[in-house]
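Q: Hi! First time doing this. I have a protein sequence and I read that you can turn it into a structure. Is that right? Here it is:
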Amino acid sequence: MNKASNEIKDDLQKKDKEGSGNTNVDVTGNSQIGAIGDGATVSNNTFAQYNLLQSKNIPKHLTNKIPLKSDDEIIGRTSELKDIYNTLHEGKNLVLVNGIGGIGKTTLAQVYLTEYQDKYEHVAWVTQTGDDVKMDFSDNNNWVKGGVDIDEGDKDTDSRFIQVMNSLRCIGAMPNLLIIDDVTESIEGIFAQLPKPPQWHVLATSRQKISKFNVKEVGFLSKDDAKALFRKYYGRSDITDEQVENIVELVDCHTLIIELLAKTANKKRWDFEKLASSIKNDEKVDIKGVDHNESDGKVDKITSYLRNIFNISSLNDSEKWLMQHMACLPNDFNSYVILEKLINLEAYGHQDEFADSLNSLKESGWLLYNDENDSYKMHCVIADVVKLEYPPQIEDMRQFVNGLSDLLSYNIKYNPVEQFQWVSFGKSALNIFADDNDTDVSLLQNNLSWILKNLGQLKEAEELLRRALASYEKNFEPDHPEIAISCSNLATVLKNMGQLKEAEELLRRARASYEKNFEPDHPNIATSRSNLALVLKNMGQLKEAEKLLRRALASAEKNFEPDHPYIAINCSNLALVLGDMGQLKEAEELLRRALASEEKNFEPDHPSIATSCSNLALVLGDMGQLKEAKELAQRAVTIFQKSLPPNHPNIKIVEKNLQIIIDEINNR
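A: Yes, that's right. Below is the predicted 3D structure, encoded as structure tokens:
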């Protein structure tokens, strides 16, 4: 200890014996005097300031703002409170409460202050309001007079900041608590100057992960806690428990939004539908008492309020570009590998910035991160703000849309099951461009609809195909091949939905267009004949259907190798018609040929194999060959149960076919 320190120690010991001064003063000589200058510039009056602080009664609350909040005002955060207390009192005296905006970081700090302020001699609360946290520390209006005094004549921010830091260090009583709310990375520049343990515990809150702090991440509430939070602020009975759960899921358990929606519904008497669409429609709410450190507690319009909380204007161009793409993805975690695949970096020329931007957005709290599988997610509330502030335009997103189209594109040699994983991405992207008539958007609609058809989601497929067809009709001449393809795809879906008359009209239109644009044996013409024949089959026009299918098969045999999947498809389609006409032997031969080809071209669990097995089983059943029929039908059931979603209609069909064969066996 230096001479000055010894003199101060002796002076304090003398005053203590005389009964003067602060009875809580630590006179061991091992505290803050040794810490003065740790990263700070010591002002000339530091030691005089130290003597002054130790010789007067210092108020417990050092700042004018001490926002207390009792623990009954939060839900589902008990374990976090205990973790913070234990961490601060077990030697890790600098803790950062980290999480995305509006999740409850400030509220958690307020409750911690309320619950544990009796454990501290002095407490202070500082909120960072600008880019430089020093400004908030050096504002004399933040500090209680007589607790921390700043030379009012000193206009230099750095000098005033040092005065505050020295004052805090010179408080000998311990422990003390400093809470710094909503800090940014700028605090790293003053980290060494902050008051240190054991005299001080420092608790900060931030969306950003900041080095040197012990990070305590605040996650989302559980679904049950989120529903309880809604009910805390919503005292009416108009919205059911099931609807509350839907609202909670809609905002992905976001604490602040749940509070805001609950207070709005309670005051405005809104029903579920009005409340669920309020963010999208930026409804006027006029709600007061919404607790967030970036507002005055009053909310005029919902989405405008969110824009203020999630202000992305400070992001650089590369980060904004990435945020636009993330906003087009489903509300789920996606691995780095998937993001690379979806966001066509090479086409955009953003390869170099991608990893850096992704990491920067993660560290600054814009993206959620799961380190177990290296995956990223944008919260749905932030995504909504991005869509409003920086609406994705097809001109900027074309490579992304085209990349999705490629992933969802139909190829007869693919297993469609492998493309199911991209369906949610296609749906999410098309939600952004729902009213866009761009031909690249139409292509994505067409491709996605084909996968939806394979999934059994026929109504959604129909809606997309009608939108695509309308777009193509606006962009192309009447006989353009894209219009014919769109007509054909829509007709196939309508056939499966039982809307045979419209399906027939669309297919005849497509066929006429193909015949005008292509040679007689072009594969597109053969496909249109085959599709039309299946509709006619369902309408009972078997003879015309047979004629079309024989021509389609002959054309396929002319254009492709013997084992090409197109030939197998035409064999199967012709066999279905022949089976209905009672020509079982030829139907059997065609189906065996199709099955052999598919077994050669596809993996054992390909859906086309299951379809051929089921069709052949029915023909064999009609021919009395029930044992083989049962084996094939069972194989079809097994493949579909393995490869398709549990509620897929094809599973029910093949299960029914199997049961028919079993019943016939049992009845013999």
